[in-house]
Amino acid sequence: MKAKRIYSVTVENRSGVLSKVSGLFARRSFNIDSLAVGETDDPEVSSMTIVSSGDERTLEQIEKQLNKKLDVIKVKTFDEFQCVSRELMLMKVKYNKSNRNEIMEMCEVMKADIVDMSLHYMMIQICDTPEKIQLLINMFKSISIVEIARTGTLSLSKCIENDG
Amino acid sequence: MIGAEAIIKCLESEDVKYVFGYPGVAICPFYNSILESDIKTILVRTEQSAAHAASGLARLTGKPGVCAVTSGPGATNIITGIATAYADSIPMVIITGQVKTDLIGSDVFQEADITGAVESFVKYSYLVKKAEDLPRIFKEAFYIAGSGRKGPVLIDIPIDVQNAQIKSFKYPESVNLRTYKPTVKGNASQIKKVIGKVRTANRPIMCIGGGVQLGDANAEVLKFAEDHNIPMVSTMMGIGTIPTDHPLYFGMVGNNGKPYANKAMNEADVIMMVGARVADRAISQPDLITKDKVLIHIDVDPAEIGKNAVSSIPLVGDCKAIFEDLNKEEFESDTSKWIKALDSYKKDLKIKRNPNKDYVDPESFIQTLTEALEDDAVYIADVGQNQIFSCAYAKIKKGKFLTSGGMGTMGYSIPAALGAKLADPKRQVVCVCGDGSFQMSMCELATFRQHGVLAKIIVFNNTYLGMVREYQHYSYKDNYSMVSLDGSPNLEKLVSAYDFDYLRLENAKGLKKTIEKFLADKNSALLEVMIDPLDLVK
To answer: Is B306's CB within 8 Å of A57's CB?
Structure first.
């Protein structure tokens, strides 16, 4: 049975760490559905959010192999319902007079913003769950999408988990 | 003090006696500073051998072996040796010279991204940016290499860092690594569960892996087996942990192992895997050892547990500490019926060989050789048919059996013998290789000669790459491709160029006498043993 799992990994903020972690996934044929990296409040520590999928044994191996890496400080894993996940996407679309209003309506419904515009193009920004973002992409398929940039999923466990 | 001198001080603080290596410009500051030290340098003839020699030394001392090579090709040449050590969890610290810091990334002469290249073969690696970091990095490297699941650690040091001045040197007394804290003691409730299962088992068996020797737990494991009459089998890396003639020992498992050892594993109701990976060569069908059985998996590396087989009781920790705890529990168990059954399998399932009388039979040769060896001798097998024959027939008493098990690297035995002999010069060390593996490392005869190290090399000559030939015999209906070793040198002439004595065995005639003469020789010697080219290991 294939399942999805989110790995929230804190690592030493050193050069080469991202390549070590991504290399581990490549070398052992683990999937990376998405990967997001950034510094934390401590400049010596980075946080990686990796979304992967596979059978239970693979998902367990991913956690163990991540823990084995000496630059990895902590690995937290959760399933989708245990955490809050967000992703940021920027999407450039081509518009014309006839669909301009339609685009703006869709953005309003989807809680997306128009952050840049020119004579023929506009850029839409959305920050939401990966599913909502996928939905927005699907909706815009009938309109002409020029290019897309996505951050990959960021996740933190739900606050209630900290209450213990 | 410059960085290079600081490195030497670090090695002295770690009580390093030998450095194996090969120089080049990028490692010259290091090899210049080492002249002031009592640490001995051993110049091998190709970098891969430096790692195998360090491995041989590490297997005897239990402490990390050290090698130092130059940047670029020096560093890339040693990768196979590093991968070999990694596969067998051998502690090692590898120092590589690197081009000047500000030239890194510009593809200058002899530049290679070695930390990137070895990433999947090392436990950890460092690229040193500041000479001040050297003491901390070396302290950490030796600690990482020699603790937990042992393995190689590489330190890449640019030439300007080796030449940089450092104000003061202080070797740290301890390490502070928030990301690395290997588990030593086994979880108490898991230990209770293990005892519970073993106590009620009708047909328990212990499968000994290389981790037991690496964890220095031979005595503790043996005591547990003897106290509760638990029969034992071993993986290739576990050979020699238990004296091979021990009444509770039933040989090596796996597709090249003893049929009765495999039968024992299949019929057991409780299997204790101890310091073993459940790798494909030992356990070809992991599902079989978990179906209708209790699998207790004891390993220092949690990632090995559940990787190839799902265990019923995982137990993470250092073998020695765990068996010390297990040995505190007192319980009675009656396994006499089970052992009786295993004894009868051992008799019934003996592989009957039909040796060709025109050649030397590997079985009787290895038996005669290992009987003639001193009790604590070190037997090093290379890779190929010689390895499988050695695993099957070598009698190891209180000695050691070294081989490249995980990676199966040809050419391992000769440099490993060099390192082992240097680690313990009083101990008898013999290595057995094939005519293929010999030719991969024959350049190292000069290293023995240069450094006055006694070599005892046995070459099984069957004029083929026997293991591949055997595979082509079974899988390709004798359509041989790339396996004939025609053109091999006359070994008598070859070794005489290195002042080695030469002995030869054509057939069973004079077997014992020739072996005794070979072992008694005060000079380095090579014994060429003619093996039937068509002989099969199974």
So the answer is: yes
Chain-chain contact of A60 with B306 (C-beta, under 8 angstroms):
yes
- Closest partner residue to B303 (CB to CB) among A20, A68, A73 is A68
ipTM above 0.95, yes or no: no
Contacts of residue B491, defined as CB under 8 A and 6 or more positions apart, other chains included, come to B438, B459, B461, B502, B526, B528
Handedness of CA B418, B423, B425, B428 (dihedral sign): negative
With contacts defined as CB-CB under 8 Å, which chain A residues touch B177? Answer: 70
**C-alpha to C-alpha distances, B309 to B114, B288, B466, nearest whole angstrom:** 34, 9, 32
Q: Tell me the residue type at B10.
A: C
The chain A residues in contact with chain B (CB within 8 A) are: 12, 16, 19-20, 23-24, 27, 57, 60-61, 64-65, 67-73
The superfamily CATH assigns to domain A86-152 is ACT-like. Chain A, domain 2 (3.30.70.1150)
Question: What amino acid is encoded at B502 in this protein?
Answer: Y
Would you tell me the crossing angle of helices A130-140 and A97-110 to the nearest 10 degrees? 170
Beta carbons of A86 and A111 less than 8 angstroms apart: no
In B484-535, beta strands by DSSP E: 501-505, 525-530
Measured between CA atoms, how close is B117 to chain A, in angstroms? 11
* Rounded Cα–Cα distance for residues B48 and B197 (Å): 45
Query: For residue range B238-292, what is the model confidence (pLDDT) as tens digits?
Result: 999 999 999 999 999 999 999 999 999 999 999 999 999 988 888 877 777 777 8
| pLDDT value of position A25 | 95
The string of DSSP codes covering A61-129 is: HHHHHHHHSTTEEEEEEE-GGGEEEEEEEEEEEE--HHHHHHHHHHHHHHT-EEEEE-SSEEEEEEEE-
Could you tell me which of A33, A28, A13 has the C-alpha nearest to residue A68? A28
Query: Residue A70: its chain B contacts at CB < 8 A?
Result: 123-124, 144, 177, 179-180
CA distances from B149 to A4, B104, B274, B316, B359 (A): 30, 32, 13, 11, 43
Higher per-residue pLDDT: A107 or B333 = A107
- Please name the member of B115, B116, B303 whose beta carbon is closest to the beta carbon of A65: B303
What are the boundaries of each domain within chain A? 3-78, 86-152
Question: B210 Cβ partners below 8 Å, 6+ apart?
Answer: B88, B89, B235, B237, B238, B275, B276, B405
Contact (CB, 8 A) for B505 and B362: no
pLDDT in tens, B292-303: 899 999 999 999
Judged by CB atoms closer than 8 Å, whether chains meet at A61 and B120 is answered as no
Q: Residues of chain B whose C-beta is under 8 A from some C-beta in A?
A: 115-116, 119-120, 123-124, 127, 144, 177-180, 301-303, 306-307, 310
Question: What one-letter code names the amino acid at B146?
Answer: G
Interchain proximity B306–A71, CB inside 8 Å: no
CA angle B98–B101–B103, rounded 5-degree value: 90
Residue whose structure tokens are 């090249």: B256
> Closest residue of A to B300, CA-based?
A68
List the single residue in A27, A64, A71 with the smallest CB-CB distance to B179. A71
Q: Which fold has domain A3-78?
A: Alpha-Beta Plaits (3.30.70)
Q: Domains along chain B?
A: 3-163 (3.40.50.970), 188-348 (3.40.50.1220), 362-530 (3.40.50.970)
Residues 6+ apart with CB under 8 A from B319: B211, B212, B215, B217, B220, B221, B274, B275, B298, B300
Q: How big is the CA angle at B430 (ends B92 and B467), to the nearest 5 degrees?
A: 85
Report the DSSP pairing between strands A72-78 and A3-12.
Answer: antiparallel
Q: What's the rounded Cα separation, in Å, for the pair B495 and A107?
A: 82
